[in-house]
Description:
By secondary structure, the chain is of the alpha+beta class. Among the domains are: 30-44 and 279-349, conserved putative lor/sdh protein from methanococcus maripaludis s2 fold (Beta Barrel), CATH 2.40.420; 47-55 and 196-277, Efflux pump adaptor protein, beta barrel domain (Elongation Factor Tu (Ef-tu), domain 3, Beta Barrel), CATH 2.40.30; 100-162, Helix Hairpins, CATH 1.10.287. Helices cover 24% and strands 43% of the residues. The protein contains 4 helices and 22 strands. The protein has helices at 2-30, 100-106, 108-130, 136-161; strands at residues 32-38, 41-53, 55-63, 68-72, 74-75, 80-81, 87-88, 93-98, 164-166, 171-175, 184-185, 190-207, 219-223, 232-239, 249-257, 268-285, 290-292, 295-302, 305-316, 320-325, 332-336, 347-349. The strands form 4 sheets. Strands 2, 3, 7, 10, 12, 13, 14, 15, 16, 17, 18, 19 and 20 form a 13-stranded antiparallel sheet that branches. The chain has a 4-stranded antiparallel sheet with strand order 9-8-4-11, with no helix packed on it. Helix 3 runs antiparallel to helix 4 (136-161). It is elongated, with a radius of gyration of 40 Å. The two termini are 57 Å apart.
Amino acid sequence: xxxxxxxxxxxxxxxxxxxxxxxxxxxxxxxxxxxxxxxxxxxxxxxxxxxxxxxxxxxxxxxxxxxxxxxxxxxxxxxxxxxxxxxxxxxxxxxxxxxxxxxxxxxxxxxxxxxxxxxxxxxxxxxxxxxxxxxxxxxxxxxxxxxxxxxxxxxxxxxxxxxxxxxxxxxxxxxxxxxxxxxxxxxxxxxxxxxxxxxxxxxxxxxxxxxxxxxxxxxxxxxxxxxxxxxxxxxxxxxxxxxxxxxxxxxxxxxxxxxxxxxxxxxxxxxxxxxxxxxxxxxxxxxxxxxxxxxxxxxxxxxxxxxxxxxxxxxxxxxxxxxxxxxxxxxxxxxxxxxxxxxxxxxxxxx
Length: 351
């Protein structure tokens, strides 16, 4: 009988242990799996987004100012005639025209000789006047002749300069119509288009509500879908104080730094105007914030338990927001699995 009693006691104890193990396993199984990140301070910027078309700061289309025989000029860098995409320096000749009859009619050498003679005569008359040898009128007449000769010579040089297509600034050839060398070109024919786009500009239009936030001199981040890994820097350069009554927007302009000229004229770009910035703040993803009539909340993990935290927010951008109160540095913030959590829920941290 005593032996039977002992056996029953042992069975009872084993049953209790088994029940406890099942309860512990069930508790473990009921823990919600979550992913966490340690909270650290970092920088955050608040943007106002806009889009537009990037344009070259300098562009020009040069046309022929006279009729003449077309002669392309070789690019000193390649030894071949200039072509699309070639760089040009300010003052560099790209195309020349030949017309001997035109050159003869200009008579530059004769005008230069006449200028020399008139200048010498004026100096002679000036010297004689100082010595009393001629009248003031005679000296003035000589001065008029010298001045007229100078104007004639300068005008002749201007006329001959029309025989060359010259780059007015350093840039890139973006359009260069083809003409067979030696053919006759009429006056007014487009010859070449040049753009300078190491710096670019963009006209912007912003909503009326942002007029107090955007200011001249603010930094801008420029992106384009063809430059997925590159961001360019810009600056707000001009702002209109007037609001359009039709669109309820105000106009502005920004200058874009384009080192390496990766951004091309005519590209459609996205511009993020930085209107607020903090170098050190608690920053969290906006996507993990839960909203209710009690306010905005997130969850942190303390000893495998989820703790609800009510938070107040500061500056924000499209993906992230600053937390002013409610979180501390080094706390473990739940970033995945938060959707079904309740305060004091048991959690299992997974990576």
